[in-house]
Write a structure and sequence with these properties.
Order of helices and strands: EHEHEHEHEHHEHEHEHHHH
Strand order of the largest sheet: 1-2-3-4-5-6-7-8
Strand content: 5-15%
Shape: globular
Largest sheet: 8 strands, parallel, barrel
Number of strands: 8
Mean pLDDT: 97
């Protein structure tokens, strides 16, 4: 069985004004997500500013998310690193915290070969009991997990179960599904491309949009999976201007700005990320109004 079907939120890590993690805000945001239909909490991912959390903070935030979620929906922890040993240690710590799975981004900067990626993911998976979802986002990592590499890992490593695909390459995604006889748990990593991946066997999205529109994102996926393609299509197309505004600056700068506009916990961004430019913020605000969020 998949860890989840539907919409998982790549949730932000709210900060206090002194840049410490705002755990009260995180709990409130998790409760809001669950109350509004989100199917899974994905903690300490890119949107959660994992790159600027210390390793101790990383584990503490994972533990807090598991505690706050209280088994109402699954929790998946981002535990990737460009160091295989660090990814193993973070994944083991997340497993010990009681997560339902780990999301492991491909090693960044090092630019591993396909052989290196195979060894990396196999080592991480062998170190934990929970399911592992690979995360392929070449625009950030500079490294693509090839279709045959991803498929071989799913086919041969018991607890490597799927992939978050943020490549925009639908041919590659279709090849992965073909090479795994459709058994790969395929999640969209791009809010604007959810339905195309669902059409080739995807089962959900790991979403930035869900931070501010959890009900709509959940409904978009589930309406499609349950057969009402027109409702799903209308939500997907209608959300495109808002999604564009959410990515007009590097994630999670805009989504934190959006959360603050809605009165949710977000707080400042840790350097080197900076606050959203005012002209971009004005566009984002208008798209949120157009989408019915403000």
């Amino acid at each position: 069985m998949p860890i989840f079907r539907g919409a998982g939120v790549a949730i932000v890590t709210p900060m206090k004004d002194n840049f410490e993690v705002d755990y009260e805000g995180l709990e409130a945001n998790i409760n809001y997500q669950i109350e509004n239909g989100t199917d899974c909490i994905i903690i300490t991912g890119t949107t959660g500013e994992s790159a600027t959390l210390s390793e101790q903070e990383h584990v503490d935030v994972i533990r807090a998310a598991v505690e706050f979620t209280k088994h109402r929906i699954p929790v998946i922890a981002g535990t990737g690193s460009n160091s295989t040993q660090t990814a193993i240690e973070l994944s083991k710590a997340a497993d010990d915290c009681g997560v339902d799975g780990v999301l492991v981004v491909s090693p960044y900067y090092n630019k591993a070969t396909q052989k290196g990626l195979t060894a990396h993911y196999t080592a991480v998976a062998n170190a934990v009991k929970v399911p592992v979802i690979m995360y392929n986002v070449p625009s950030r990592t500079g490294c693509n997990i090839a279709a045959d590499t991803a498929a071989a890992l799913v086919n041969t490593v018991d607890n490597i179960v799927g992939i978050k695909d943020a490549t925009g390459n639908f041919v590659q995604a279709a090849q992965m599904m073909n090479l795994t006889d459709g058994r790969m748990d395929l999640y969209s990593g791009e809010d604007g491309q959810v339905l195309p991946l669902l059409s080739i066997g995807g089962i959900g999205v790991i979403s930035v949009l869900s931070n501010i529109a959890p009900r709509q994102t959940h409904d978009m996926v589930m309406e499609y999976l349950e057969g009402d393609r027109e409702i799903a299509r209308a939500i997907q197309i209608g959300a495109v201007p808002l999604i564009n505004a959410l990515f007009c600056e590097v994630n999670p700068i805009p989504v934190k700005a959006a959360l603050k506009m809605m009165g949710f916990a977000a707080g400042p961004l840790r350097a080197p990320l900076t606050e959203m430019e005012e002209e971009h913020k004005a566009v984002l605000r208008q798209e949120m109004i157009n989408f019915g969020l403000l």
